[in-house]
Write a structure and sequence with these properties.
alpha+beta; two-stranded antiparallel sheet; elongated; 2 helices
């Protein structure tokens, strides 16, 4: 059952609902870190603009992670295929 979780994102107090409080708080920390980093380099921008930019940065990192995951899965599949072929050749080879 989801429960109410009070958080502060970009200086705004919010009540969120969810089942995993630690995951939500970890996500909130990441969003706030992104907003604070952007505030350092884009001081003239408003909080809503910084929040949007933070969301875009996080989405980009998410897609980068998905792409890396796909590359890793392809690599593992190729390596397993090579191992399987090696084992099949070894199995068919007569013993000395």
């Amino acid at each position: 059952m989801s429960k109410a979780i009070r958080v502060n994102i970009g200086g705004k107090d919010l009540t969120l609902r969810g089942d995993d409080e630690e995951k939500i708080k970890k996500s909130v920390r990441e969003v706030n870190i992104q907003i604070q980093a952007l505030q350092q380099s884009l001081r003239e921008q408003s909080t809503p603009t910084l929040s949007l930019l933070a969301a875009l940065n996080i989405a980009e990192r998410y897609h980068d992670a998905l792409d890396q995951n796909d590359r890793d899965l392809r690599y593992v599949a190729q390596e397993l295929d090579k191992m399987s072929q090696f084992l099949e050749r070894a199995w068919r080879q007569p013993l000395p």
